[in-house]
Q: What sequence folds into this?
């Protein structure tokens, strides 16, 4: 039946895409948990490019994910905790002015020490370096979106007793959505910008070289191989364009509904990928059977929890566990450092705090 | 106020024991009776008022503010109303007519002078005898009470600015309360304090007797700018508070659909707010507020952002839902700057003053729904509110009389001459400055009525006071009485130019003419608008008499013209006016 065939044809790309993504994640996880090989041989042959491109993309994607999570937590705390805000925002401002390469030694050393025998350590170091180039503008955007929620909507949320969870998903995150999307695009571009420096660098007497597009380009440049450089550049541009079409355009088209406008605009961005996704029957099915019941369960759970608290108290406070969790993680890290280096407590705590925030690490302790 | 009497009165009225109620009222004095009567629900007030004997009714009704007096008078049949107005104390009657706005006064005059006198033309008396178990609606218990709340903001330089002065406000059940005030008067802040969105700097807010911390009130809020979430559909917007309450999907879906049908948005469930017009967006706002069956519905200028027709439509629908008991809301708290909207919707109006916000007036509207914008009673209330809002810095109790803002375009000059007033003042001065009018009339072998115009003239020009049948000379009057003729003329001239509009008008007109002469016909025409023929003539005579005495102008009877008396010119002073 022709109808059946066309609908199946529409589902096919989505299904294939889903399977491919799944396979890619598995393969990457296996590579990361493999034995450490920080000095990979970078082949300058064009056929190695797809693999290198995939690795780079995955590193950037993971770094972006970390940035996103950091943004949500940091921005939320800074926006709603008056006391924290006073030092968090200047701190953010300071950190974003520090060049990425200054973070390099500290991050690499800690990561390598954390995972000495697995590939994960080095890779994580590289990912975190990319993270330090991506996260700051997203955090600022999220923070400013939270601060500029229209007061009447905020009051409506307060008056109708929306739980923290519901408020986050239905007021704060949608309000910040458009800002976050455009800043994400900028962050990912920043990731490409720093890729070369983050994948291949010399630290002390160690030479780090990770398979990826950045190291390919750097190796080609060192060797003076113009053709290889051109191949590398073309691949990079190709990947960027593909990302733009497959990821950013649909997301921007979808985010139209978050615009705070009173009347629908005449010109809206369109995306064929989004249309493909929207016309699929598989996605709504998955959403309905998995995502919606889960969301429902969470909403109701937080609503019941909210009933026991009063109206004017407990509003816009960062959830207890989030703040506590962040603090305890800092403490835990400093504890680990103290045990490992068996030096005095106080100065090491300072150094660990410095490492945590990526400032230039003092090499002496005590 | 004597609580036992008030309670006994309420009981008596509730059980339709009218004679007993009337007897109770007769035992109190006028102000107490008026206060007690005023606290009854309006239908009962009317029924009781109709059964009062005329003397008592005349005394009691005069104690009420003029808007209430007007409404009470109109609850009587036409003949009885006329009789009652005649029975009123002349002072009270004069004041009442003075305070009424022009249109209402006009209508009242028409009604009083109509020759029908048909008893059946008045409102029919609804024979509502309350069965003992059916309690008449009492003046609702407070749901939310704010006690001595105060709000201040801290300036950057550390100073505290007080936005809301300490005040008490309560939201009662079965009432629509409208908070009126100019912009910036803190009414939105008050709404947020009462609904628990903001905490006051000082004072407490009680909900059903419990402080706000422990018991969040079940409220709905409708905002001026709709405050809808643009990324959610209409249905999701309405379901938002229901999710917050923990309702499962089928129940809340059904409830949301029901509420949307009630506000007239059936079929728009999956539309996004940006696809809707302003009126529809506000309907969604209403639906969201009503979805949780709130006890109190707060509205912050809900119709200000809509066009006139849509606003009118929504108002009508809201009142329909309210009067037909289709919504379980017990009370509505409306903040608005539109006076007509407040009078149209509200049962109780609180008028705020600014800098800092304080309650200027708090009164009830005794008109049944639906209200007619064009009716005289409606206009009387609107007029009262205008007066309150334009009278700055005045403490207004429930029975404070307000001076009329309606400056009459003419004053009626009392028919008395300057000489007559001079004589009266000399007499008073002789007697030590104070005398009872009736005694005075007796001694002079005059009718009191003959004395009145002269006394009125003295009062009008500020040379005497008249209080409760006594005439008292003022310091200015004393000076006049003791002065010689030239000084008298000077004093008279100053007083006349200050107090008498007609003579001011004549002088202004004369000064503006280059030849300093105006035909008298001009002023006859002006007065003709307001007075009958013979009255016009009398006014003119009086004005001429006064003007000549004061040497402001003269009259040339041959050319029928008024001529300005130049300050330096003494040519005309030789025309000594015969004083009689």
A:
């Amino acid at each position: 039946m022709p109808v059946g065939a066309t609908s199946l044809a529409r589902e096919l790309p989505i299904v294939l895409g889903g399977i491919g993504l799944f396979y890619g994640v598995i393969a990457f996880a296996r590579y990361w948990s493999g034995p450490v090989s920080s000095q990979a041989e970078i082949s300058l042959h064009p056929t190695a490019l797809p693999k290198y491109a995939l690795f780079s993309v995955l590193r950037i994607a993971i770094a972006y994910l970390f940035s996103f999570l950091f943004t949500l937590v940091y921005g939320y705390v800074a926006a709603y905790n008056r006391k924290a805000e006073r030092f968090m925002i200047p701190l953010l401002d300071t950190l974003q002015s520090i060049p990425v390469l200054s973070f390099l030694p500290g991050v690499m050393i800690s990561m390598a020490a954390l995972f000495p025998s697995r590939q994960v350590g080095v890779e994580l170091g590289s990912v975190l370096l990319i993270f330090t180039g991506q996260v700051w503008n997203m955090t600022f955007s999220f923070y400013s979106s939270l601060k500029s929620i229209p007061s009447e909507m905020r009051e409506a949320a307060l008056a109708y007793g929306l739980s923290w969870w519901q408020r986050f998903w239905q007021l704060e995150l949608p309000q910040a959505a458009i800002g976050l999307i455009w800043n994400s695009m900028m962050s990912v571009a920043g990731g490409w910008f720093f890729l070369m420096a983050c994948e291949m660098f010399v630290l002390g007497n160690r030479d780090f070289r990770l398979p990826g597009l950045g190291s390919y380009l750097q190796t080609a440049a060192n060797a003076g191989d113009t053709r290889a450089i051109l191949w590398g550049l073309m691949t990079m541009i190709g990947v960027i364009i593909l990302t733009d079409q497959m990821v950013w355009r649909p997301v921007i088209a979808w985010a139209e509904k978050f615009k705070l406008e009173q009347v629908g605009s005449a010109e809206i961005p369109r995306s064929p990928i989004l249309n493909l996704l929207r016309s699929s029957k598989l996605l709504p099915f998955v959403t309905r059977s998995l995502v919606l019941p889960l969301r429902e369960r969470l909403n109701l759970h937080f609503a019941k929890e909210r009933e026991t608290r009063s109206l004017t108290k407990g509003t816009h406070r960062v959830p207890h566990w989030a703040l506590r969790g962040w603090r305890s993680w800092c403490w835990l890290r400093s504890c680990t450092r103290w045990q490992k280096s068996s030096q005095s407590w106080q100065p090491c705590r300072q150094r660990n705090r410095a490492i945590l925030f990526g400032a230039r690490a003092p090499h002496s302790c005590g | 106020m004597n609580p036992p009497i008030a309670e006994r009165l309420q009981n008596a009225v509730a059980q339709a024991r009218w004679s007993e109620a009337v007897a109770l009222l007769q035992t109190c004095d006028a102000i107490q009776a008026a206060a007690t009567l005023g606290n009854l629900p309006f239908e009962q007030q009317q029924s009781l008022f109709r059964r009062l004997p005329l003397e008592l009714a005349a005394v009691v009704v005069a104690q009420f503010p003029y808007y209430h007096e007007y409404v009470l008078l109109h609850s009587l049949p036409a003949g009885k109303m006329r009789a009652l107005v005649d029975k009123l104390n002349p002072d009270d009657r004069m004041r009442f007519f003075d305070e009424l706005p022009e249109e209402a006064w006009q209508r009242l005059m028409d009604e009083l002078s109509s020759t029908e006198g048909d008893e059946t033309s008045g409102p029919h008396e609804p024979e509502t005898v309350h069965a003992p178990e059916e309690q008449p609606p009492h003046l609702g218990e407070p749901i939310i009470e704010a006690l001595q709340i105060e709000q201040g903001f801290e300036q950057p330089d550390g100073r505290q600015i007080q936005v809301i002065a300490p005040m008490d406000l309560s939201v009662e059940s079965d009432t629509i309360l409208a908070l009126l005030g100019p912009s910036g008067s803190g009414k939105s802040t008050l709404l947020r304090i009462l609904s628990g969105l903001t905490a006051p700097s000082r004072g407490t807010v009680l909900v059903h007797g419990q402080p706000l911390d422990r018991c969040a009130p079940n409220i709905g809020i409708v905002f001026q700018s709709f405050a809808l979430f643009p990324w959610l559909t209409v249905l999701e917007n309405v379901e938002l508070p229901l999710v917050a309450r923990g309702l499962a999907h089928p129940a809340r879906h059904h409830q949301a659909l029901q509420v949307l049908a009630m506000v007239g948005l059936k079929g728009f469930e999956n539309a996004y707010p940006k696809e809707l017009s302003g009126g529809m967006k506000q309907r969604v706002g209403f639906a969201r507020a009503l979805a949780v069956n709130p006890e109190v519905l707060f509205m912050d200028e809900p119709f200000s952002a809509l066009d006139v027709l849509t606003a009118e439509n929504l108002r009508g629908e809201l009142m329909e839902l309210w009067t037909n008991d289709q919504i379980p809301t017990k009370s509505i708290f409306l903040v608005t700057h539109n006076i007509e909207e407040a009078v149209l919707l509200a049962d109780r109006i609180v008028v705020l003053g600014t800098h800092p916000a304080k309650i200027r007036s708090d009164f009830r509207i005794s008109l049944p729904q639906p209200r007619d914008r064009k009716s005289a009673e409606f206009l009387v209330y609107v007029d009262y509110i205008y007066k309150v809002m334009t009278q700055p810095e005045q403490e207004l109790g429930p029975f404070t009389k307000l001076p009329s803002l309606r400056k009459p375009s003419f004053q009626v000059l009392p028919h008395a001459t300057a000489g007559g007033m001079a004589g009266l003042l000399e007499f008073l001065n002789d007697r030590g400055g104070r005398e009872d009018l009736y005694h005075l009339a007796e001694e002079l072998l005059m009718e009191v009525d003959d004395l009145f115009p002269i006394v009125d003239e003295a009062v009008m020009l500020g040379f005497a006071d008249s209080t409760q049948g006594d005439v008292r000379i003022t310091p200015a009057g004393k000076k006049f009485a003791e002065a010689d003729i030239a000084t008298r003329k000077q004093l008279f001239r100053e007083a006349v130019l200050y107090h008498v509009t007609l003579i001011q008008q004549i002088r202004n007109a004369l000064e503006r003419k280059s030849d300093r002469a105006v035909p008298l016909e001009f002023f006859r025409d002006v007065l003709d608008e307001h007075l009958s023929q013979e009255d016009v003539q009398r006014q003119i005579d009086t004005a001429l008499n006064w003007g000549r005495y004061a040497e402001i102008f003269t009259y040339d009877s041959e050319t029928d013209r008024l001529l300005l008396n130049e300050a330096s010119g003494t040519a005309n002073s030789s025309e000594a006016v015969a004083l009689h």
